[in-house]
């Protein structure tokens, strides 16, 4: 069966078209665009009209590819930004008109379970796992082995933390300290709730983690095959985080692995990852290119 999975988060909208059968997924197309749907949501509580329009344009391209590739089933999940917004109905109406299906504004718990399903499929590492999906508006913490045992979603993400705390370019020490305190409180709550300290392997998902991994690996360009299942030591994560927080957005844009739409928020994303590793007592993180998109695809069969 050919399926299309769409994940619309706070920062990006992503598409996976795949043939799924016998518990296996064969990728046909995987795309990502930065649309910053959640721009300003933490402050205003509403989706900005220009953010909805950016998302519509990206979604229109996805809809055309879905039609061209003969997809049997489509599922679009919308996460943190549309959960938080008072005008989420405007977003839903736009998606229905553009894609022909309604977006599912999923709960943080469902987001965590889909991310876990995508991340652990084919993973060869010691269980149980602590899977962390660092998004734009929220971070999901999931513990399990073959299935989810505990899960929680916390309102810390690279866009939300940047907009809330990291206003200077580069951020000042006081801004970084405020972000650290905010993130640490949320991480400690999450780890207590999901029993994250007793896990064997930390698995990190989404663009903040994979970009940090690419920088730690000193790649000449973004290479998903090199990043997928790479194990990155804590010392490397800490160094990359320090360098990113000390750099201007222009400096970050010069890095060969950096997506232009991620440059202004990657410092906060790296900081979230570093603090999770510290508070969970993890000496390394396994980066995964497989995440909620793969979980959505599997859910369609």
The total tally of domains equals 2
Output the CATH homologous superfamily of the largest domain. Answer: Exopolyphosphatase. Domain 2
Fraction of residues in helices?
Answer: 40-55%
Q: Give the averaged pLDDT, no decimals.
A: 92
Give the name of the CATH architecture of the largest domain: 2-Layer Sandwich
Distance between the termini: 8 Å
Tell me the β content: 15-25%
What overall form do the CA principal axes indicate? globular
Radius of gyration, in angstroms, nearest whole number: 18 Å
* Structural class by helix and strand composition: alpha/beta
Spatial arrangement of strands, main beta sheet = 8-7-6-9-11-10
Write the layout of secondary structure elements.
Blueprint (H helix, E strand, L loop, with lengths): L1 E7 L3 E10 L2 E11 L6 H4 L4 H20 L4 E6 L1 H5 L3 H12 L4 E2 L2 H13 L8 E6 L4 E6 L3 E7 L3 H7 L8 H22 L6 E5 L1 H10 L7 H4 L3 E3 H12 L3 H5 L12 H15 L3 E5 L3 H8 L2
Parallel strand pairs: 1-4, 4-5, 6-9, 9-11
Antiparallel strand pairs: 1-2, 2-3, 6-7, 7-8, 10-11
InterPro entries: ATPase_NBD, GppA/Ppx_hydrolase, Ppx_GppA_N
GO molecular function, one term: pyrophosphatase activity
Protein name: Putative exopolyphosphatase
């Amino acid at each position: 069966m050919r399926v299309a999975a769409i994940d619309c988060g706070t920062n990006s909208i992503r598409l996976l078209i795949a043939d799924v059968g016998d518990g296996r997924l064969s990728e046909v197309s995987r795309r990502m665009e930065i649309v910053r749907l959640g721009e300003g949501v933490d402050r205003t509580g509403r989706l900005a009209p220009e953010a909805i329009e950016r998302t519509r344009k990206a979604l229109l391209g996805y809809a055309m590819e879905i039609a061209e590739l003969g997809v049997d089933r489509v599922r679009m999940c919308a996460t943190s930004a549309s959960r938080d917004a008072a005008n989420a109905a405007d977003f839903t109406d736009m998606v229905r008109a553009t894609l022909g299906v309604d977006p599912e504004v999923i709960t943080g718990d469902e987001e965590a379970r889909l991310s876990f399903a995508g991340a652990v499929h084919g993973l060869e590492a010691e269980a149980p796992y602590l899977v962390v999906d660092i998004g734009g508006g929220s971070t999901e913490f999931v513990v399990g082995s073959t299935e989810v045992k505990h899960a929680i979603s916390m309102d810390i993400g690279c866009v939300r933390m940047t907009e809330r705390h990291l206003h200077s370019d580069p951020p000042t020490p006081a801004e970084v300290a405020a972000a650290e305190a905010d993130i640490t409180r949320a991480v400690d709550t999450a780890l207590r709730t999901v029993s994250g300290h007793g896990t064997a392997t930390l698995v990190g998902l989404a663009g903040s983690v994979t970009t940090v991994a690419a920088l730690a690996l000193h790649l000449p360009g973004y290479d998903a095959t090199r990043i997928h299942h790479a194990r990155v030591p804590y010392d490397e994560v800490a160094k990359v985080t320090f360098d990113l927080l000390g750099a201007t957005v222009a400096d970050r844009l010069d890095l060969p692995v950096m997506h232009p739409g991620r440059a202004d928020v990657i410092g906060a994303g790296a900081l979230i990852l570093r603090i999770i590793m510290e508070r969970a007592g993890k000496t390394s993180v396994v980066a995964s290119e497989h995440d909620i998109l793969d979980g959505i695809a599997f859910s369609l069969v």
